[in-house]
Amino acid sequence: MAGDDHLKQITFHNQKTAPIGMGTWRVGEGNAETTKQEIESIHYGLNHGINVIDTAEMYGEGLAETLVGKATQSFDRSDFQIISKFYPYHATPKLIKASLEKSLNRLQTDYLDLYLLHWRGNTPLAETVSGLEDVKKAGYIKDWGVSNFDLSDLNELASVPDGLNCVVNENLYNLTSRGVEYSILPWQKKHNVDFVGYSPFGSDKNEFLKLKPEIKDIAAQKHVTVFQLLLAWAIRNNDVLSIPKTSSLSHFEDNLKALEIEFTPDELDLLDSYYPKPTHETPLDVI
Q: Which Pfam families match (predicted)?
């Protein structure tokens, strides 16, 4: 496998992988120079052991998937995993199949490793699961999952036929949005459902994340950037695949360095004091 044998690794979707993947929100929407940088970033990631790419039909209405398709053609498909997601209004068996075919064409691949319902819609979960099981049996996807599901959603999913075949749930997770820690992460661990945490830095323009000045002080004391600190924190327990956006080589190099950052118990306690762990069920943040 292409990559760096020295990278920290976790088990995700029954495969060894780095604890960060490549996010593609807003990727493929820029000019020729921006597109070139984005393709180079994906190449850099795949050449340095980052082997999960996270995308969706929603991202640029297919532009992100198209760019990923172009960027990955010279790589061995078995060396990396592609996650894509479909709109909730495409969640019937017929529309899942149609959406998936379009995504596969854009991605220039004949299968997805994981196909996720992007968020809850009006289609009954039993119908959606049935559609996902159909495309799985046909070999178009290896497995399926969900995104932006809270505890009640997960429990409902588990109650429908084949609902426990869900292998992943992807939610917002960063230092300021820790709601999943109270019940979602324990539930998923109990049911062998992997967790993907998106937006470790907040939104793509950092508008969502309003950090306290003390966080910058902690980063400075550790001689790392605030972004490296945030990413290292998200993956600190080796039980999360975190998905930062992938758009430039300099950011990617910084992200890789975050894999080497360790925290002392005192540092974690300090971060907890500024952004406490949830002590009860709370509505989950969504971007």
A: Aldo_ket_red
What average pLDDT score do residues 227-253 get? 92
Q: Token digits for 33? A: 């120079």
Tokens of 119: 């968020």
Is 274 catalytic? The answer is no
**Distances, alpha carbon 36 to alpha carbons 126, 146, 193, in Å:** 42, 31, 35
- In sequence order, the 6+-apart residues with CB closer than 8 A to the CB of 86 are 56, 57, 95, 96, 99, 100, 103, 115, 116, 117, 118
pLDDT in tens, 78-131: 999 999 999 999 999 999 999 999 999 999 999 999 999 999 999 999 999 999
Catalytic residue among 44, 59, 274, 275: 59
How many domains, in total, are found in the chain?
1
Cα separation, 98 vs 105, in Å, equals 11
Burial of 273 (0-12, 13-18, 19+ CB in 10 A): exposed
Q: What would the pLDDT profile of 2-61 be if each residue is shown by its tens digit?
A: 445 578 999 999 999 999 999 999 999 999 999 999 999 999 999 999 999 999 999 999
* Selection from 155, 150, 158, 235 nearest residue 184 by Cα: 150
Domain that holds residue 219: 10-274
Q: Are strands 15-17 and 10-12 parallel, antiparallel or unpaired?
A: antiparallel
Residue 66 falls within a domain, yes or no? yes
Produce one character per residue of 46-68: b if its CB has 16 or more CB atoms within 10 Å, e if not.
Answer: bebbbbbbbbbbbbbebbbbbbb
The CATH number covering residue 180 comes to 3.20.20.100
**SS3 of 284, please?**
coil
Residue at 285 is within a domain: no
Q: Is residue 39 part of a domain?
A: yes
| Rounded Cα gap, residues 56 and 118, in angstroms | 8
- Is residue 281 situated within a structural domain? no
